[in-house]
Amino acid sequence: MPANATCRRGIAAGAFALLMFAVPAIAADAPPADDNLNAVLWMQRSVEYKGATMGAFALARVRLDQALADKTWTAAPVEQTGTFAEKPPAVIVDVDETVMDNSGYQAWNVTAGTSFSPKTWTQFVDSRTSTAIPGAVDFAKYAASKGVKVFYVTNRNADEKPSTAKNLEALGFPMGGNVDTVLASREKPDWSSQKGTRRAYIAKDYRILLLLGDNFGDFTDDYRGSEAERMKVFEANAAHWGRDWIVLPNPAYGSFESAPYGHDFKKAAGDQRAAKRGALTPWAGPK
Ligand SMILES: [Mg+2]
Q1: Quick check: 252 and 97 in contact, CB under 8 A?
Q2: Which structural domains are found in the chain, ordered by start?
Q3: What is the Å distance from ligand 1's center to 28 Cα?
Q4: How far away, in angstroms, is 270 Cα from ligand 1 center?
Q5: pLDDT value at position 25?
Q6: From ligand 1's centre to the CA of 154, what distance in Å?
Q7: Strands, E assignment, the chain
Q8: Are 213 and 152 in contact (CB under 8 A)?
Q9: What is the mean pLDDT of the chain?
Q10: Interval 102-160: pLDDT, tens
């Protein structure tokens, strides 16, 4: 058989194989594309995600012990003012995608072809079906066993607070006893979605050992700038990462996702996607 015939046959076979693979992708009943499919799949189904969160909480446990032994240690350099060495210790954890897993809501949005809305979100919160992030309950219980108060500083709102507290409690998280440890957004007039005022409120009575969160705003109020501005703030706080500021992975949503389109949630979905694509740094491609 001539070499070119073999080659042609090879090409034909390759084209056939490509067609075989292509057919399912163009089938009329193919599910619609969703920008969050891989992120939610990873968070809900992968062992890699579970391993990452368990690693974060294992580090938090080590850091908690170090922080307890060092009375000059605080995780809130902006809000922890005055003397604090003898104040009782506390840790601040964010709720969503830090200690509670809401991937069911994200997955529902993917499969229903919808996106976040305050109405369906509140309905989800009130279903009290959030699960615990792997490693979170053990860490929180460990902290409580060392006499460390665990504060849940969340941007769930005041109306959503009762369901949030019940959900946390049902999952086995230590609650505050006679201290209200679930601090919701807008619960007080100056408690905005920026969490600095709530950190300051806690810092009045406690030495804050650690901040744990999945979003830049769980650590600093300067999270809503452009990507370049966020990078500057990130670098200025280099000493905190992995020491007293511990990040949980969340590729599904957060200020990282809205920074490329200026955090303008009213922008059309297509424009948001275009801005995010424009923010990528692609390889120049084959020469
Ligand atoms: Mg969160």
Answers
A1: yes
A2: 41-268 (3.40.50.1000)
A3: 37
A4: 25
A5: 54
A6: 7
A7: 89-93, 100-101, 131-132, 149-157, 182-185, 207-213, 245-247
A8: no
A9: 92
A10: 999 999 999 999 999 999 999 999 999 999 999 999 999 999 999 999 999 999 999 99
